[in-house]
Design goal:
Strand content: 35-45%
Radius of gyration: 24 Å
Largest sheet: 6 strands, antiparallel
Shape: globular
Structural class: mainly beta
CATH superfamily of the largest domain: Glycosyl hydrolase domain, family 43
Length: about 475
Amino acid sequence: MHLDTRKQLFMDDLFLERADGVRLCVNPPVQHEEPVLLPDRPWEERGISGYNTVMREADGRFRMWYGASMLLGLPQEGAIRLCYAESADGLHWDKPMLGLLPFRGSVDNNIVAPQLERQSQQGATVYRDERAPEAERYKLWTKFRPTDAELEAGVGAGLYAMHSPDGIHWTVYPGQPNPPEQMCDTQNMFFWDDRLELYVGYTRVRETQHIDEAAGGGRGRYRAIGRITSPDFRTWSDTQVVLEADDTDLTIPLPGEKTTIRPSLDFYTSCAMKCDDAQDVYLMFPSVYYHWQDGEFPATMDVQLLTSRDGIAWQRTCDRQPFLRHGFDGSATSGMLFANPWLIPVGNELWFYYKGTARRHSGSGDIQAPSGIYRASLRQDGFISVDAGYRGGEFTTPPLTFEGDRLEVNCDGSAAGWLKVELQTPEGCPLPEFSFDQADAVFGNALRKPVAWKAGRDLAGLAGRPVRLRFVMRDMKLYAFRISCDT
């Protein structure tokens, strides 16, 4: 296995070829109780939809694109249009009056798409595409429903792509919906994958959406997540199913007898993305939808964490516990939670945002239920750690080659913790200058803690040579390591 100079995250047991006294531990984020955005405008009278995007620009601005649900009457689910907000700190948001698109005869609002009031756009995933020309710097994907007149004229509903030079003024790409016949009732995720040199999209899978097809296997109607790829954001591959309820999901303990033929849970959204500053790290934050009795009871959703090395094979680490949990009963996070892209570095943390509502999925008419967009934060690279307890533990990697010359770790040893790293031959023999006895102990809590030996820190002489890393630690959480270049 070859390591480049990006971070190596402990998302699975890849680096734990030999392990004793350590375990992988999921570290849920802090879910801050105060909402950062509430529905307080006339065009938000039915609340904020679950499908929203937050990113931070190079100039420090936080930008948000969110779905505002409004009472217009024609689209079958109630019209949803895309709105825009900005923030200097990610906490306090302004909804600028942009003067672009009409709402009930006035353009004094922050609506940016779609163009017509009787069109409906179910939120969006917005992506800043550095590879694209300036006119297409921003792209979005959304479920789109034309007006009734457009539908009668043959305009298709479905998954639409749009582009913009600034994230404010949007134009529909020609040839929509694209891909045609793609199930799109979800937040459809996409990004450029530099590992594959392809655009990768995650959508809802049609093949498992119809009861007549699914019931033949005794499973009933359910939702799953598919993956498609494109070299140009126009021509897409066939859909590959990458996540669906498995035997563990289908046999979860229930408080009473199951009363429907549907499975007890399925996957509503994916929120899948690639971590570009880490090597071969893909993360997914799906909303898991629970329903096992008539009326879709309990009709609730929380968010799990899944990890992958290739974006295709996904692991559900550490017993599938919620990564984003429900709030107290009756609160705006007590019914359904939807994680939204993207992950935003702020100081020592990663911030990301999510929609919360007290409404259950079966309560579509309850427009009075509280809702809003919330912020979660966690340590940078802190999704999953290798933990050693008070009595200590260790693990050894498989043989690795690397490019850099300095080893750094992201670790938290609190007061009593320490860590030492030994370098070994592929056969497991310590290298004399980098043995356990020659290693300096690492103490404390830092994102980029240098590792050294009595001979120094320089590993340049080992670059390209297969070695094992043996981590020995006590009372320590190890989140990531990196062999970087000292430049």
